[in-house]
Amino acid sequence: MLVDVQNVTKSYRGKDKVLRDVSFGLNKGECLGLVGESGCGKSTLARCLMRMETIEKGSILFNGEAIEKLPERKLRSIRKNMQIVFQNPTASLNPKLKIKDSLMDAYDQLKGEADLTYFQYTSREGFVKQLLEAVELPGDLANRYPHELSGGQRQRVTIARAISIEPELIVLDEPTASLDVLSQGVVLQLLTDLRKRLNLSYLFISHDLAAVQQMSQRTMVMKDGSVVDVFDQEHLFSKDRHPYTKELISIF
User: Fold this and answer.
1) From the CB of residue 50, how many other CB atoms can be counted at a distance below 10 Å?
2) Distance between CA 199 and CA 88 in Å, rounded?
3) Cα angle at 187 between 48 and 183, to 5 degrees?
4) What keywords does the record list, in alphabetical order (predicted)?
5) Most buried of 49, 179, 224, 236 (most Cβ within 10 A)?
6) H/E run at residue 228
């Protein structure tokens, strides 16, 4: 098991609990889908998992190590194995940086500490070319700015940046929600190929059950801050599904 979340609770000041005793596991090499209506706590859970938010109660283990209270200096070795891709690629990329500089950001932050096995770092130019090829983008995009790319191309750049340090886990927070239907299909297939090629693990967050079905080996359903259902894909239509899962299936 790569990630083991145990009884995590989170609330914001003056509000009800956003996460209520959330527990789940994510295996190495697995894509775990997370589905639920807007506001159910999916993105908050992602941010807690990445230590971008603190939790009030519970524990988050990554490769068996509890990370919820680790000081920043000790988090460094953990963070190089965890990356996140957000919904809006435009907001994720610095508009003043060329694509090649954005692609080097994660690698540069680690100051060469990334343990690469798939990619080879010989030069910045060569490394950027490998990353663009990995997400099926032409090399001449390296010298362009984000506004010169399509939405689908920008999202593939953010994916390339995420895989640049070969993390074990990538949290995908609605990665196709801002894309047109054609670009969605391209990105989902690319993510599937990359998971297998680089032996990645995904937490794939979406409100789109069809996309979750396509991407994931298991699905976890959240409602009002709680996990109400977890199942293998072949058991989606089982009579044992939670009533809320059945409600989602009815509009699937």
Assistant:
1) 19
2) 25
3) 120
4) ATP-binding, Nucleotide-binding, Transport
5) 49
6) strand 226-232
C-alpha distance from residue 194 to each of 102, 152, 164 (Å) = 20, 16, 12
Residue 175 makes CB contacts below 8 A (sequence gap 6+) with 85, 86, 87, 155, 159, 187, 191, 204
What long-range pairs does 226-231 form, CB within 8 A, spacing at least 24? 226/20, 226/21, 226/22, 226/41, 227/22, 227/23, 227/24, 230/24
86-103: b (≥16 Cβ within 10 Å) or e: bbbbeebbeeeebbbbbb
Kindly report, residue by residue over 179-220, the tens digit of the pLDDT.
Answer: 888 889 999 999 999 999 999 999 999 988 889 999 999 999
- Determine the Cα angle at 134 with ends 219 and 180, to 5°: 60
Asked whether 20 and 223 are in contact (CB, 8 A), the reply is no
CA dihedral 77, 104, 189, 207 (to 10 degrees): 70
Strand partners, 220: 34, 230
pLDDT tens profile 130-159: 999 999 999 999 999 999 999 999 999 999
CATH superfamily ID and name for 1-81+169-252: P-loop containing nucleotide triphosphate hydrolases (3.40.50.300)
Alpha helices in the chain (DSSP H): 42-49, 72-79, 89-92, 99-103, 105-109, 124-134, 151-163, 181-198, 209-215, 243-250
Joined together, the tokens standing for residue 180 give 């047109």
Confidence of residue 250 (pLDDT cuts 50, 70, 90): confident
How far is residue 248's CA from residue 184's CA, in Å, rounded to a whole number? 20
